[in-house]
Amino acid sequence: MEQPKNDVLKVKGLHVEFQTSHGMVHAVKDVSLEVKRGRIHALVGESGSGKSVTSLTIMNLLAGNGRVISGDVTLNEKSLLKLPGKEKRQLYGDKIGMIFQDPTAALDPLFTVEQLLLEGLRKHHRMSKKQAREIAWRI
Ligand SMILES: Nc1ncnc2c1ncn2[C@@H]1O[C@H](COP(=O)(O)OP(=O)(O)OP(=O)(O)O)[C@@H](O)[C@H]1O
Ligand SMILES: [Mg+2]
Asked: Which residues lie across from 117 on neighbouring strands?
């Protein structure tokens, strides 16, 4: 499986707002960040500061009342915000995944972590269980 070394996820000048019955909520104000392949980053901030909304925007999972008013999210300079459905399905779960805030709901306790990693790899790439296992143990 091809493993480019230079994948870069960028959030550039992101602004997100929500329409609510109490008016507009400007949830994310001018967030920019960069994540390179193989690097570990933490997004830190007080409750309500927009960490989840930023992450959900990266995942293209913004709630129906939410809207990106400006800015962009790119992977290797390609915008992720207006991808057609097919490209979204190819990308998410392969290049970019998310473990949601409640890990007991996001990770099925009936499966081992290895099984969960193997499922994602084999859904996106034609490979044997043995090959997937080798990659999973390298991740
Ligand atoms: N669907 C929504 N409709 C309206 N407002 C929303 C919606 N989702 C999030 N918000 C608002 O956006 C702001 C940012 O919320 P967010 O959940 O991103 O914060 P957070 O930094 O992840 O907080 P926490 O540390 O508590 O998880 C908050 O004011 C929140 O109330
Ligand atoms: Mg949150």
From this structure: none
| Distance in angstroms (rounded) separating the CA atoms of residues 26 and 45 | 16
The predicted model scores a pTM of: 0.86
Residue with CA closest to ligand 1 atom 24: 47
Mean pLDDT by 10 residues, the chain (139 residues): 71 98 97 91 95 96 96 94 92 88 81 90 92 88
What 8-state DSSP symbol labels residue 39?
-
Residue 137, token pair as written in the block: 């143990």
Q: SS3 for 61? A: coil
Pocket flag, ligand 1, residue 63 (CB < 6 Å)? yes
- C-alpha to C-alpha distance for 108 and 92, rounded to whole angstroms: 19
For residue 19 and ligand 1, the question of a CB distance below 6 A is answered with: no
